[in-house]
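debug: dumping io for the single-chain case to check the tokenizer round-trip. Nothing else runs in this session.
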Amino acid sequence: MLAPGGSGRQPWEGGGRKRRACYNRIFRWHILRKEIYPAVSGYTIREARPEDFDPIISLWGQIDRHTALPDRREYLETFHAFSPDLLLVAESGGRLVGTIIGGWDGWRANIARLSTHPGLRRKGVAMALVREIERRLRAKGARRIYALVDKRSPPAIPFWEAAGYAVNENILQYSRNFEGELEPEGGGA
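debug: decoded output
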């Protein structure tokens, strides 16, 4: 089986292939039969507000995520103070059902933390969040958007492919966690 784009290389590694193939088969079967799940009625997408931060963290705790750092309210407060228009939530019936974070440094754009309530997946919420953050990032001047996706999440790969994104095998992402490290003496200055 060729990887999307015909490179011959598989965009996933290790034992995830079987789960991905199974999920892909189910995903494609529903699309081919035109059984696109109905949209969640009455949801809205809006900028997050400080009173949303605890429910956002609660939502993130309900989903299968792989993160090395704990989620903290102060991280959301810092991001919100810096870029409130790129921290979005989906709300339905007075409760948060999805989140997405956009990043823009004036040159590159990124998407992270796309999440939907486990009971409301495959109903259009995630795609609506992606399209809205794309619209906002493009309005700022973004010509390319990178999506930070955990390859250990079987539903993620076919979702992002359906959204028009492709694996970029030319870029490796490196990260370094500073959680728990002491600040350099003198405040780092």
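debug: round-trip ok. The beta strands are 43-47, 87-92, 95-104, 109-116, 145-147.
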